[in-house]
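> forwarded from #structure-qc
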């Protein structure tokens, strides 16, 4: 009988063929071509389901859940601070570049070099989210929190759905009813359908509700692939063979760099960067998998107690450098139309971001367990920003409608007025996000912990198994 691993690899191949054909709009007019292309999708899905069915016959294993809570002032999770920085980059970038730009920003940038610190790159913020998301999803499986059997995969999807879908649907429907009632017109119902099946590509059209939700669609598509990838290569890339994980890490990053530049060189889609590079899963898969395959490498080093002195401090410095360089590239490549910086930002920086963020995650995870090994200022910074990182999902889904509503009354002026307007609207977004956390996210987190059963309990219909996962395994929306 074919192993579940081979079935999963075959399934990934089928789904990849379908995704490439759909992405590049290749002609599939004839009956036979449609039969082949959609056959790839359905057969890939069927193969994966068959692999899961095979795994369901394996001996059951235990999975545990944990309730995501606000960190206390004594908590210590630098990964939440990383998420907070990524969120700040998105908020600042969308504010200065789109919603509340200062008057004559391009001219001001030529006369004052300091202004480029305001032009945070929102694209880089999203890439940071993707690498971190890939790492955390992989950690769930590599650490044993989710087992590679029917019950572990069911628990993974169950928790992902309860983490993402409730707030997503809540915000989508609220914003559609208040600001975009045309989304419910029959002629626009297809756009709403793409939102609901997590297939929205971010291209604004009549009936669009929140364009920024494209990244949630891309993440959900990756979540669907996570069990495929782990079943396919998880046993091959354990902490016992870190060089294999390193080889795969190099391979996926090379693929991403080549893919992005090939679309540029061959003018794919008329260089429609958003549709063919930025928003589709294939254009970001290297970032997700870069984080995913980082897990066995970190496990290998932790088991050998290869701790990094002041690892968090060094990682914070690298994150600051990523912000500064990407802001400079954004100012010169986007606002000042420098062709070299523009090309570097959109076709090279994703790969560079993947490498630097993966390295920073490793520094955070390999820093000495004792917080006092870090500088006092760094300890304070992490504790102050990780609460912000807890709210990043709600902040992200709410910020666009809040920004757009406020931008209709905004009159461009000085950089100071732009900053004050941005700060005021960020406070509004934070307040709405906090309410959403307690009214929507928190109740479903409790449902998630009650529904996260071990295989033994699921079969016996007994009470849930509750436990404490490792500190950094708390579910986070990336």
């Amino acid at each position: 009988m074919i192993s579940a691993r081979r079935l999963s690899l075959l399934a990934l191949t089928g789904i990849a063929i379908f995704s490439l054909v759909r992405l590049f709009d290749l002609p599939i007019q004839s009956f036979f071509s449609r039969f082949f292309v959609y056959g790839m999708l359905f057969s890939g899905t069927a193969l994966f389901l068959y692999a899961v069915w095979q795994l369901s016959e394996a001996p059951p294993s235990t999975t545990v859940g944990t309730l995501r809570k606000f960190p206390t002032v004594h908590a210590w999770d630098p990964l939440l601070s990383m998420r907070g920085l990524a969120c700040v980059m998105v908020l600042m970038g969308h504010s200065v570049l789109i919603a509340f730009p200062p008057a004559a920003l391009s001219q001001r940038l030529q006369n004052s070099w300091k202004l480029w610190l305001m032009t945070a790159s929102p694209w880089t913020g999203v890439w940071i989210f993707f690498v971190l998301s890939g790492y955390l999803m992989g950690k769930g499986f590599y650490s044993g929190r989710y087992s590679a059997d029917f019950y572990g995969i069911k628990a993974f999807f169950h928790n992902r759905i309860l983490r993402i879908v409730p707030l997503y649907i809540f915000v989508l429907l609220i914003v559609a009813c208040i600001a975009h009632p045309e989304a419910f017109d029959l002629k626009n119902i297809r756009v709403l359908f793409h939102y609901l099946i997590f297939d929205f590509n971010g291209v604004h059209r009549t009936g669009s509700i929140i364009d920024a939700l494209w990244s949630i669609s891309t993440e959900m598509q990756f979540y669907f692939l996570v069990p495929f990838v782990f079943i396919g290569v998880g046993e091959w890339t354990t902490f016992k063979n870190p060089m294999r994980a390193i080889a795969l890490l190099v391979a996926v990053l090379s693929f991403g760099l080549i893919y992005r530049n090939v679309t540029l060189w061959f003018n794919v889609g008329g260089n429609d960067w958003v549709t063919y590079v930025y928003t589709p899963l294939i254009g970001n898969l290297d970032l997700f998998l870069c984080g995913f395959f980082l897990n066995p490498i970190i496990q290998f080093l932790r088991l050998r107690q290869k701790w990094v002195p002041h690892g968090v401090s060094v990682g914070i410095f690298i994150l600051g450098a990523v912000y500064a360089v990407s802001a400079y590239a954004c100012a010169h490549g986007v606002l000042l139309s420098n062709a070299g910086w523009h090309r570097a930002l959109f076709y090279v920086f994703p790969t560079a971001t993947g490498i630097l963020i993966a390295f920073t995650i490793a520094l955070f995870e390999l820093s000495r367990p004792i917080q006092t090994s870090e500088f006092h200022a760094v300890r304070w910074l992490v504790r102050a920003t990780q609460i912000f990182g807890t709210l990043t999902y709600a902040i992200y889904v709410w910020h666009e409608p809040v920004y757009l509503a406020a931008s209709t009354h905004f009159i461009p002026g000085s950089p100071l007025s732009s900053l004050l307007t941005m700060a005021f609207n960020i406070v509004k977004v934070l307040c709405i996000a906090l309410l959403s956390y307690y009214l929507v996210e928190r109740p479903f987190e409790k449902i998630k912990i009650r529904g996260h059963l071990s295989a033994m309990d699921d079969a016996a219909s007994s009470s849930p198994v509750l436990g404490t996962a490792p500190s950094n395994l708390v579910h986070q929306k990336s």
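QC bot note: DSSP finds 19 helices and no strands in the chain. The radius of gyration is 22 Å.
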